[in-house]
Amino acid sequence: MLTPVLAGHGRRVGAVSREIAQELGLPEKEANEIEIAGLLHDIGKLGFPEKLLAYRQKTWTDQDKARFQKHPEQGEAAVQFIDKLDHVGMLIRHHHEQYDGHGYPDSLADEQIPMGSRIIAAADAYDRIVKLKVVDDDTLKKASEGNPVTHKNLSEEVLQKAAMLHLRDQAFVLYDPDVVKKFLDMLKTEGIRYGREKELSLEQLESGMVLSESIHTSSGRFLLSKNTTLTNDFIAKLKSIHFIEPITELIRVERT
């Protein structure tokens, strides 16, 4: 099972990838496949040690780098025998290809890369910076406009600016420029869906909050559906269940 951090990252990347696909006018079936692939894009990281999951690349050995770069193929392999997920597996395989042809595993370039993979690559990079706070110092310095910041006191505003700068600067290199343009236009005019949501622990829930995603236990047991308005009784029952069957993922609710 994916860690709560990876699972949350996957949910957000899937949701944003779908929004980009819809903005690009892709058919609903294709948008659905892209969302699923975005949700599962890191499934090949199951069993990874913390230093790989935390992107601490300065500490990686050559073996660590080689193992990390295998995860798209391992992700494809994880879903290839599931009915109707063969195309999803292909999108997962290619989400680390680069527009200039220097990505992996197959060194595809430009339109050789499936459109869904190009979309997921941009959504993945954005979420990795904004939510996981994986950002290089040069981009961070530009985003903060010279103001002193550290990785410990980063505001979401600075992180969002850093993510947008990264996407803009790496268009034509890492990312499809048409995808980047559509994504940046969307961010500037509408924002993204998870920007209008927040993720909370079980202890942070309050009566009156509205779920923006269904709640399941770590074993997959369904508890409450999306759009449910929480009551004190619901929250108490969730806490009781948690002691027996843990709810490990953060809970997504609408911002008020």
CATH structural class of the largest domain = Mainly Alpha
Whole-number tally of structural domains:
2
Helix content: 40-55%
Topology order in helix (H) and strand (E) letters: HHHHHHHHHHEEEHE
Give a verbal description of the structure:
This protein is mostly helical and 256 residues long. It has two domains: 4-191, Orthogonal Bundle (Hypothetical protein af1432), CATH 1.10.3210; 198-254, Molybdopterin biosynthesis moea protein, domain 2. It is built from eleven helices and four strands, in the order H-H-H-H-H-H-H-H-H-H-E-E-E-H-E. The protein has helices at residues 4-23, 28-40, 50-53, 62-68, 71-79, 86-93, 115-130, 137-143, 156-170, 177-189, 232-244, and strands spanning 197-200, 215-216, 222-224, 251-254. The strands form two sheets. Strands 1-4 form a two-stranded antiparallel ribbon. A two-stranded antiparallel sheet has the order 2-3. Strand 2 and strand 3 form a beta hairpin. Helix 6 (86-93) packs across helix 7 and helix 7 (115-130) runs antiparallel to helix 9 (156-170). The protein is globular, with a radius of gyration of 19 Å. The two termini are 32 Å apart.
List the helices and strands and how they pair.
Layout: H1 4-23, H2 28-40, H3 50-53, H4 62-68, H5 71-79, H6 86-93, H7 115-130, H8 137-143, H9 156-170, H10 177-189, E1 197-200, E2 215-216, E3 222-224, H11 232-244, E4 251-254
Helix pairs in contact: 1-2, 1-7, 2-6, 2-7, 5-6, 6-7, 7-9, 8-9
